Amino acid sequence: MFTESTDVVVIGAGVTGLTAATRLRRAGLSVRVLEARDRVGGRLHTDVVDGVPLEIGGQWVSPDQDALIETLAELGLETFSRFRDGDSVYVGPDGTARRFIGDIFPAPEKTQREIERLIEVIDARAAEVDPEAPWAHPRATELDSISFWDWLGQHTSDAEARENVSLFIAEAMMTKPSHAFSALQALFFAASAGSFSHLVDADFILDKRVVGGLQQVPLRLAAELGDAVLLERPVHRVEWDERGEGVVVHTTDRTVAARFAVVAVPPVLYPRIGFSPALPRLVQQAHQHQSFGLVIKVHAVYERPFWREAGLSGTAFSPYQVVHEAYDNSNHGDGRGILVGFASDVRADALFGLGAAERKQRVLESLAAYYGAEALTPVVYYESDWAAEEWTRGAYATSFDLGGLSRYGAAQRVPVGPVHFASSDLAGKGFQHVDGGIRVGREVADAILAATTTTAATDQARAS
User: Fold this and answer.
1) Answer CATH for 45-103+201-211+295-393 from 3.40.50.150, 3.90.660.10, 3.40.50.1970, 3.40.50.620
2) Which protein family is named in the record (predicted)?
């Protein structure tokens, strides 16, 4: 068993952990990063499948994601705009595909007006929520005790409007049925993105991509850290001092003693680590009330982007289709056409109950409902299944069950002695997104640096 000492040990080499580690190292502290996987990046992964580069995980950059945009500039990474010229497609409850331009689906006029009204209502309510402290809302307990689905039902009797508005947060973002999380959780999500209108506007929230893939962010951060990053080192035990005087972290072949630890993995993985002494009761309870959603990200590659020839942008939506949303995801400077689609929550449940061939057929038939029969014959087909990843177990981010956010939210980022918790799942602004992960990584690094400065000043005072 190899033993070493460092100032800070970071558990997890995703964008949050690597952001924290590089910030700490630049400030003069020694760091050790321990990653369970055989790669860095966490839920960011750009891979080559049958000769085609695909974004297996997170990929988009929106204009309000200041922390991510700053990091891209710092690392010298370029972006390109998502293709969006032409009409979008909406498939209604009758199965008919209709073209449209803008953000509001081409439902009956009365339903369109109702969708617009609901968006205004949610924007107004979300503006009342502080994304850094949604539990502080004066009606937090009330809003956290009703599901988003039931809350929408209180505000509209139009079934199609309710299903479409639900789609933007439930299936598209939370990847859970809207009866499984609260109205407070939904309003917090909207507030974290700046507004619900931002989530509705695909041209905003899915604005740009990184040339070469978004995983280049953690790859370049890790390159700066060099041999401070160790792969295939799952942490199974953390011993911490209740007086805040240090931690000892154990892997199968290494023990790392440090002044501080940063646990930079999704909350669903915390139980994989034994803590000694046990974490406080409220913290352990909070971990039991957070869970991932379920989503299949589907990549269909064609010899050319045929939908553009028909005047389509590639953007498609329907709460009634197996693939509830899809986009033109063609790579920069590549003549091949790529469609990316998503099937989440109960749709994903049903698909995973099928064999691989039948599942592929169902997905392609759903894409054909949007784009026509040519969508049935891709040259490459691939499914991103993050729930099957041992060190992820779902996507895109964890969220609380009913009542959990107001009860436990304030405790989720409070350090336990020298142990700090950090991930995009715990972000306020930028929740769920890479931007949020970077923000949290910066904040936890700054908190450790402040604690280090305070300790040094105290020690100096005692010495004098």
Assistant:
1) 3.90.660.10
2) Belongs to the flavin monoamine oxidase family.
